[in-house]
């Protein structure tokens, strides 16, 4: 069997070494990233959204959570809005396989 030729100037050995190095680097970096995130959102402090959207259905999750905490909107209102949107859009994109709308509202 003939050894494989380098593709785009990268041999199989060099490719595997680079992938392994990237895996090790991401494993080492993960605890530092998690520590930073936790410190910024310690108990009692929540992330504040800079999302300019006014429609709850298109807001970031951070902004929706902020609105719920500030009692500007209830979780039931958000759920009903999502259910209504699923009813309008799902016939075209078929993204929701199983609906549990009653369960979501209780």
Tell me about this structure:
The protein has helices at residues 12-40, 61-69, 75-93, 101-105. It is mostly helical and 106 residues long. It has two domains: 6-44; 46-106, no CATH class. Mean pLDDT is 79; it is low at 32-39.
Number of domains: 2
Report, as a whole number of angstroms, the end-to-end distance: 64 Å
Name the assembly state: single chain
The arrangement of helices and strands along the chain is: HHHH
Radius of gyration: 23 Å
Extended strand count: 0
Give the helix level as a range of percent.
55-70%
Backbone shape: elongated
What class, by secondary structure content?
A: mainly alpha
Mean pLDDT: 79
Report low-confidence residues grouped into runs of 5 or more: 32-39
Topology:
Elements: H1 12-40, H2 61-69, H3 75-93, H4 101-105
Keywords:
2 domains; 4 helices; 106 residues; mainly alpha; single chain; 58% helix; elongated
Short description:
The chain has 106 residues and is mainly alpha-helical. It has four helices and no strands.
């Amino acid at each position: 069997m003939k050894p494989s030729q380098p593709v785009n100037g990268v041999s199989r050995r060099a490719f595997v070494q680079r992938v392994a190095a990237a895996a090790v680097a991401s494993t080492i970096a993960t605890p530092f990233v998690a520590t930073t995130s936790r410190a910024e959102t310690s108990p009692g402090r929540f992330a504040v959204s800079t999302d300019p959207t006014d429609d709850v259905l298109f807001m970031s999750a951070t902004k929706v959570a902020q609105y719920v905490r500030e009692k500007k909107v209830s979780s039931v209102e958000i759920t009903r809005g999502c259910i209504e949107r699923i009813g309008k859009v799902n016939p075209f994109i078929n993204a929701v396989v199983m609906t549990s709308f009653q369960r979501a509202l209780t």
